[in-house]
Automatic annotation (TrEMBL):
Domain AAA-ATPase-like residue range list: 6-231
Designated name of the protein: AAA-ATPase-like domain-containing protein
Record-linked PANTHER family: AAA-ATPASE-LIKE DOMAIN-CONTAINING PROTEIN (PTHR34825:SF1), CONSERVED PROTEIN, WITH A WEAK D-GALACTARATE DEHYDRATASE/ALTRONATE HYDROLASE DOMAIN (PTHR34825)
Spans through the membrane: none
Organism expressing this protein natively: Persicobacter diffluens
Amino acid sequence: MKHILIGSSDFKELIEQQAYYIDKTAMIEGLMSDNQAKVSLFPRPRRFGKTLNMSMLSYFFNIEQAEENSTLFEGLAIEQSEAWKHQGKYPVIFLSFKDLKQASFEGTIKKLSRMLQKYVLDEFSYLLTSDHLEDHERDYLDQLKKGQLDRYDLEEFLGEVGNFLYKYHGVGPVILIDEYDAPIHASYKNGYLEEMISFMRNFLSAGFKDNENLTKGVITGILRVAKENIFSGLNNIVTYSILNHQFSDCFGLTQEEVDQLLMDSGSSARREEVAHWYNGYSFGGKSQMYNPWSILNFVAHLQDGLIPYWVNTSSNDLIKEILPKSDRITQDLLFGLLEGKTVEAEVEDSMVFEELYDGKSEMVLGLLLFSGYLTTASYSETRKKKLRIPNLEIKQMYQRILKHYLDATSIKQNLLIESFLRQEPATFADLLERFFLNSFSFFDFDHRGESPEKIYHAFMLGLMAHLSEEYHVKSNRESGLGRSDIIIFPKDYTNPKAWILEFKKKNLDIKQSLAELADIALKQIKTKQYYTELIESGHTEILAMGVAFDGKEVVCAWDKK
């Protein structure tokens, strides 16, 4: 089997080093079809092959070294396509914004200026002395070379250089912009979003809207930033997101491609395990799509077994920050997802960053869906989608986020769990109370008292998640005359212990104290006979706990049966 070159997104490097390459060149035929948009936007999760595809497009279209580049595509699908006639026919501008993540707008503009300066000198130095250009056009390039262009001149870069290339080659350029939204994410985090949006709107408009000589434009990113913010006026742009059928198999790996990869690596016997860990995405109604970063890493490191790869390539900071601020509807839906359910909800397909922190379900779920942390369970053309967690790798990420808040304090997780398993309720209650007092943003709820008990419920499930190998951890399980919040009992039927947890959340309309609410929760366990199933199963040592929450305060009441 050919070797797998992890971390390389350079198409030429993969081909020349005879590394394993999964053919995605059919994307070119789709882009160059007669009814295809002039400018295409492809929002996809990170590490799903965006940069490699853009590199492939660059080598295919580039008029520079056209004959040499043509050999890179020998034996690939595009060689037999009608679209092959476009090989090596156009000047190409290929920019990646993935590293534009400065702490200030001024810093971003300075880094972009240096990046464009180096790019022009490396790729288009022949334009500096070309007779095809007017004096003022060469002056623009000379000022860029000297780093003397201001932000307003830089906004015109794509339009100006695209026009220069057209004059020199006699054919309009192909413009490829990879990770266009990286500087926008950074600007939101660092407080200069408005300036960055204004700059990017003008920068992209100069290249894609006002450039009459443009042959084709392709833009990639993780999210689709709302059109009124950045793509205003770009009537020639069409978005192909994970919800669209066209190009759905161009990013990520299909089941057929993974089957071939597993067969080539001698790992076909592990097909079901691999699917459980890395499969599960649905793009445009095409199900069983794989995360390529994870499956390729798995094959490259077979001796390490099935472990998380994709979720470990990012800090997931935005997800960690947004989830606790979700509104009540969102928290209820997320709670259902954590239980392994498929939930139905409306999803916003473009991001208005200012609204993310409002916690609205459409925006938060859209972020999770388009970032790869959720997927659709079935195809739908409406805004209402059936959503689920795609695979075990992502499910473990959610569990780790919950545990993160526990690990970040001085209270050790094992002390909490050990006191719980030993059925020492006073110690457990004391440790839990101290944890909440020392915790941070996850429990920094609003002061209106509107945060539901579901988020506490989800946290407690996350806390108990690692018990699942030896214990049954059941949530909202019907027992007796109702549904208890959490029931835990051993898989070892000779162990007589069991636990019942019931939660209450205080708000402004509830007059009882936390201690009184904890007692009410404990009485509910008794009056609704949540013990019934456990007693019938032979569990004779049952710890029942009522737990009442109010922001960072928690009070427990208990009874041992």
